[in-house]
Structure formats: structure tokens, C-alpha cells
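Hello again,

I reread your note about wanting to compare the complex against the isolated chains. To keep things tidy I'm splitting this into two emails, and this first one only covers the full assembly. Below are the input lines as submitted, including protein chains and any nucleic acid or small-molecule components. They are followed by the predicted structure of everything together. The single-chain runs will come separately.
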Amino acid sequence: MVTEYALRMGDGKRVFLTREKILSEIEAGSGNAADLGEIPDLSADEIDRLAEILMMPGKAVSVEQGMEVPVTHDIGTIRLDGDQGNSGVGIPSSRLVSCMTHERAFGADTMELGHIDYSFKPVKPVVANECQAMEVCQQNMIIPLFYGAMPNMGLYYTPDGPFENPGDLMKAFKIDKAKDSMEHAAEHLTRDTVWVMQKLFASGADGVNFDTTAAAGDADMYGTLNAVKTLRALYPEMYIEMGMAGEMVLGMHGELEYDGVRLAGLWPHEQAPLAATAGANVFGPVVNTNTSKTSAWNLARAVTFIKAAVEASSIPCHVNMGMGVGGIPMLETPPVDAVTRASKAMVEIAGVDGI
Amino acid sequence: MADFEGSLHEVADAVISCKKEKVLEAVEKAKAELPPEEIIDKGLSAGMNQVGVLFERGKLFLPHVMMAADAMTAGVKLLEEGMPAGSREKKLGTIVNGTVEGDVHDIGKSIVSTMLQSAGFEVHDIGRDVPIRNFVQKAKETDADMIGISALMTTTLQGQREVIELLKEEGLRSRVKIMVGGAPATQAWADKIGADCYAENASEAVSKAKELLL
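Full-complex prediction:
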């Protein structure tokens, strides 16, 4: 009987595949990324190595000694206290306790403070509270502590914000008005983000993490890149991490450019150089998981994209790994076998600098 | 012999170019050689399908999709002049689309609505954070063939099941198809709650809707 190995589908379901099937899934996943991103496929050696990692007998696997990378956490301060609605585990604890637990018990190399709404715009009215929390955390901690939030440009559109919703305008064929709305929202996003971070930096933040950049499309990325640029000019020594929302920048506007490069339709290897140009220290590429495909297909695809991003980037790449990204199945608490295999592959094959 | 395939290609290419004048010019030319139904199906719709593929690949963007849809509509109108009255303005089906209550995510759902509309469906986008009852109410009002239900959070996924349960209570389930989507939704979830299909992205939503309704 042919040996079968326990893998996962992208939705977390158990699936048993032969070595030959795993290899063909890896080739297909890598080929899909290569086709979309116009980047190289994984080499034969890399495909074999990835198959080896997927077929390892242990439930959890790890990187080889000496290949450890820094691990940081987004939304970490509410991971303990929050409920399942925001990916928390419901343990009553303050944000200070949560930050310190990550530092002293979980071995986090860096940490971030975040507000429960986790977007820059809603932080504006409570910024004094955030500054106080930052100061208290900094007085008690040693590892670098950033302030983190999502650019989340959707909050600037009706009914949450002042500008007409471009989705509605587009459906009514008011394309120019939709574009105007996006451009105005991007300006506000830049302005608000810079204002919030000026306060947080004054309160001792070691840096900023832009989490889920471009979630609202190319204008969201445009606003974020301009915020990074402004912050870098204001604070030459500040640590700035720019993480993405998805693998491709959605072309909601379609014509916005940064540094002469059109933002719509960019893949991770094309996003990374722009993050560096704007002044980010670290880029966080994302590859989405397809829930209908196997973990071999998804991981090969993710590794192919991320490897190209690492090679194209002049700054370190800390890949986003978690629920539904980085070759990890779409589950609230992703299975350890899938998480550790994906992490090992990202470090040893894609060559990421951190997670 | 006229180059029928060439004419259809020309129509499809004109749609992909997203230029209304080009589409009208190509349709005018094809009209002399081919029946309107064929031009719509193998020229205009084929071009629009390709626009969807190029959008997913990051080669065309939302404004292009809208311009192509606008150009296609103009092309269809031009062809309808030569069609029997009964066959005019035939929509592929009526779809109610929205994001469930408690969930304010809008963008993905709006893109799906746009792509469905561009593909020829009559779409009623009822927005985000929509109470369960409103999905059913709107489906009744519009005599919808399908309800699309989006949820972007694990906590709001349950709303998709509730819409299906309410449809059953109202005795409408057998005549209204259900499509579910959104980041935490999966095929397994769709199977579990008894949805008719799950779509991974906007172009898959169009192809699944066509599979179920045509």
C-alpha cells in the first residue's frame, strides 16, 4: 500500500496524500504564483525540500538550529483579553499584562500596543488614553514596543466617514467621483495617521506597525505610503513596519502612483521596494490561503510569492503568518501542524527575515 | 465568406479595451454578419468574462470593469433594436447581495455586486450590517433567484445560516439559491449550513451564479 501523509485543506480539513500527489500539488501551487506574479517557480530542490517539510512525522516541526528568526505580534495586546470576535482567548487582563506576558512568557521579540478598534481613525478621540498606556508599558518592558493599527481607509467613507462610498459611486457609473472620493480619503488617512503617531512617539513608542495596508485598495496603500514617508522625515530613527492586507493591491482607483509606480495590481515582490522607498524598516508581505486547495498547494504558492518578495526587497521581510495567510488554513485557531510547517518553509525556503 | 469569428473577436476585444465607441463600432460591424444573440453571447459576454479574469490577475481595475460594463450595456442596447420584443433586456437572473448584521465589511461584497452586475445579473446590493430579515424581505420584493451573503468575521458567519433558516421558515428556500462568501467562509461551512454554493472571489461568484441560475 502506498504511504499517505496527513496534510490539511485550506479550510483546515484533514486530507491524506501520497508523496506523488504532494509533489504535484506543490508544482501546481508554485506554478500558480509564478503565473500570476510573473516570477520564477520554485526549483526542483526547493520543491523536494518543501515536500520533505510537509511529510515530516512530527506533529510540530521547527527550523534548524541557527536559523531562528524574530517573531513579532500584531494586535497582541488584545489577543489575551479579547474574545473570539477579535481573535482573542478571553482571559481578563489589562493591555500592560498582555504586553508583559508576551515579553516574559511567550518569548516575543517585539510587541505592539493596539486599541480595541485597531484602526488609526478611531484612535484620534482616545489618543491621550493610548499615550498613557504606551508610557506605562514602556516603563515596565524591555523589548521594542510599537504602536499598531490598521490604516483601514474604509472608515473614511459613508456611513463611517465624510466621503461618499466609492463602491456605491462605481455601481452608479460615477467613476470620476469615486476616484475623487478615494483621493480625499487617502489624504485624510495620511494626515490622521501622522497626527496619531506623533503623539505616540512623544509618549515613547519605539515604532509603528501599519497592519493590513491596502485593505481598501490602491488608495489605502497610497495614503499609507505617504504616511510612512512623512513619519520617516519627521523621525529618522523610528522603526516603521508596513504589513499588507492581501497578496495583490486591489485596483479600486486604478491610476494612483507612488514614486512613478502604479499601485493597483502590485504583487508582494513589487510592493516591497515601494515600502523601502517610502522609508519603512520592515515589510510584511501577505499571501492569501485558498480554502478549497490543499496545504501543499497553498504553501508552495505562498513560499513562491514570498521568496520573490524577499529577493526584491532591500529591507527585511517579516511574512504575515496566521489564520488564512502564509499557507496556513483559515481557522480561528490554526492547527499547530500546519502553522509550524508553513513557518519552517517560509524561513528555510523563502528566506524570510522574520515572522 | 465573412470572418464571423473575427467579428466576434473584435467585439470581445473592444469590450476588453473598455471603450464604448470601440464596442459600438465593432457591434455595428458584426450586426451585418451575425444574429444579435450570438454577438451578445460570444462577443460581448465573452469579452466581459475576460475583463473579470484580468481584474483578478491585477491587469485591469475596478474603473475598467465599470467602463467595460457600461460599454457592453450600450452594445446590447444597439443589438436589441434588431431583436424581437420578448427577448429584449433579458437579465441572467436577480440577485440580492449583502453583508450580514454585525459585520461592517463592505468592499469585497461591493466588488462581487459590481462583477455580477457587469456579467448581466440584476443585482440589489442591500449594503452591510444588514438585519437577517431584510435579506428575505428584499428577495421577496424583487422575486430574487439568488441571495448572496457575505461575512468577514468568524463571529458573524452564523448570520449566513440564519438567513437560510429564515428562508426555510418562510417557505422560500426551494426557489431561492444561496451563495456564501467572505474571508472565514469555506466550502465546508457552505455544506454545513446548506448553502447552494461558496465563492472564493468575485469572478468565482460570477461563474457559480451562472452555473446555478442558467
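For quick reference: The beta strands of chain A are 4-8, 14-18, 111-113, 145-149, 207-213, 239-244, 257-258, 261-262, 282-284.

B.
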